[in-house]
Amino acid sequence: MPRHLHPSRKTFARFASRQPFQFGLPNVSPELAQASDNSPVYFTRTNSLLRQQVLGNAKGVAIKSDAFRFQVLPRDCWGKADFSKSSVLFLIPDDALGDCVGMTLFLRAFLQRYPHAKTAVLNSAAASDIFALIPDLAIFQLFISARNLAQFEYVIDLSEMEGWKDIATMPVNPEEALCEAFELAPVPLEKRDVSFKPGINIGIVPMASSPLRTLPPELVGKISTLFARHDANVTIVLNAYQGVMKAYKAALGDLAAPNIRIVDGFKTIGDLVQFVSKQDYMVVADSGPAHITKLFQTPGLGIYSSASAKTLQGRHQNLRSWQSGFVGPYCQAPCGLAKLRATPDGKIGCMGSLNVAASVLSELPQKSDPALARTLVTENPVPCVAELGQKSDAILSLLKTELSLDS
What we know:
407 residues, alpha/beta, Rossmann fold, 14 helices, LPS_LOS_Heptosyltrfase, Heptosyltransferase
């Protein structure tokens, strides 16, 4: 084990089990499920689903500690170490799809530089299917045994990358930040040309995890109708795991064209990844699927509101971008907020929707407000999202020009 280590930022639960066990998340491909291996102890993040909902009530399980920290290689050593024949375990900070796509792209660059390194990820959780696109990468979606941990010479906490602490208020590009930190050249990109023809497969993914980044239903309906009128096969993919999905689907109305279908969502992230890989063109909100297009260089249009398209797309030019141009008395797009925030007296929103300065919105909401979320995505969107709807004609014109469509 190398010297000059320090504790990981996040704490892990250290537990033992007298009985064999296996565990897999419902939205992850079954083949990535994990099983015990008779190790004396195991480790999982203290805030993971496994720790919070399973271990505390499981027979034969003993929690040894909830304050365990791995000894990890410090950030200032990442670019100096030689990983040529090393075994490296990367701790994944969270399972947000966009961030994990960036980390997957970084791992491609890492293995391009160190093809004989043995690599693994821990805490990939719901994003495990994304990491599974890398051949021979070991994936520990929720826990690792002491036996497996002992195989790794280096443990690296990726939350030490620049900008991670502030990612909730100012998005970063993990691929760019990590390649710079490890002094790696990113993998070359293959260009996929846009070629419209009847029968083309077009995927539209309008929903993000936040109302700040979800596209107006009326805009999505207009885009879908445009493509359908030119004999494209259009699939609108919603997210059944989000509480606002039914309301959003109702707001789309009756898209009667036979070549438009609406999918409530996919069972696993692996199914979503496969869907993106098979599309000829995509229209996406600032969401995980927008980032997944980078893995296949799928061409399309990314429509952005609160986050910067330039920051999120980085070097990837497969998506043409449209950025909300909203300017108001308290903010202008892109403001950098990834999620709704709360005022000290509990009002939930953003600077534009609440007409307050950014300094007033210092906290994330302590509890969800489903009714507010439904209103924001269907009836009264935040100003930067509403501006996208107001510019629908210009967005349609851009699509017509790029895909050489007549009116």
